[in-house]
Description:
Elements: H1 4-7, H2 11-33, H3 37-60, H4 63-94, H5 101-125
Amino acid sequence: MTNETTTSPSAARLSVMVGLLLVTLCSWPRYQLGGYDTHSGLLAMVAVGLAVVIVAYWRRMTASQRRLLPIRLKWLAMSFVIGGVVMTTWYYGLASSRAEWATVLSHGATVGLLLHAISTGWRSRR
């Protein structure tokens, strides 16, 4: 027996994709300010590609999964805030060297996405 989550697009998977898009966008200033134009261009192309996939995936979702999406996106936002707090505390409170804001933003978004993806996986197994 398969349930709806394994046979059709789920809100949990879409929220992780949205998180990946946000991490990509949060990493862009770091490369732009560092003068890595090639990396910035590649990140822009990845962001456009992810946006297209996200829209296509959302269109395939069932109505019940679409209703779950706001809850997942709220948790994603909270995860990003937690990731930002963790990395700000690390770089400006505990680490021996300071980092630029763009690095803190990029790393905080990455930590937030990891927290969101891991917790989403744990929830789905229960």
